């Protein structure tokens, strides 16, 4: 299975931009799911493959009724829409009030996402954009089914302190307590830093030292370039060679490193669908 959940602790570090960028260059078929209980952004900022707007009623909102009767992973595809460029997305809720319709269903969704890779008909990995999380955010109920939980953070001191504390809290919730770097639990909690590429090496070492000292069990698994121009291209707000942008080049490096480390456990072969092709999305 391969459910990769992306989240942040506070502020606007770029979870959606990171999720779309990683999905756009993912080496196997992938479904991008907007699972932020506060609502998604893609429906407002991205065009559908047919050139018109995405349907806000097809996605997380429509899947609620299906999930209450039980959810087979392949049923997810009934609620998916392709973006212009081919990336397949499960459009998020329109607002936080609609999250009430998914109450109690988050573990069911997590299991369906995790086992979509095992589908005999249309296997795919799932990248879930969970937005900002706190201790009572319902999307956290999916995390126990994930292969990876990636916390997205910028590199200001307060942001690093928050991601350290959030990693420790998640480790306690998912693994039963604080853990040292030599005793990583499942799912792995990783940190992806949004940073200037010229400073990434030094910052990765500093943040890893902080995560180890706090016994979070988390570690930095990669960096994504802070690239406003690339983010605008990804969101369709600006023209340019998206595949040459720092944003996409750094996202490729993260996905390559993740697959080098964990790909053996994600052994279901790809089955068609978009792969490795940057596509338009949205930034948060």
Quick description:
By secondary structure, this protein is α/β, with parallel strands linked by helices.
The backbone outline, from C-alpha atoms, is: globular
Count every beta strand, where a strand is a DSSP E run of 2 or more residues: 8
Which strand order do you get reading across the main beta sheet? 3-4-2-5-1-6-7-8
Report the structural category. Answer: alpha/beta
Count of helical regions: 8
Return residue spans where pLDDT drops below 50 for at least 5 consecutive residues: 269-277, 280-284
Notes on the protein architecture:
Helix 5 (157-175) links the parallel strand 6 and strand 7 (188-195). The longest helix is centred in the middle third of the chain and has 19 residues, at 157-175. Residues 269-277 and 280-284 have low confidence and may be disordered. This protein is an alpha/beta fold. An 8-stranded mixed β-sheet has the order 3-4-2-5-1-6-7-8, sandwiched between helices. The protein is built from 8 helices and 8 strands; from the N terminus they run βαβααββαββαβαβαα.
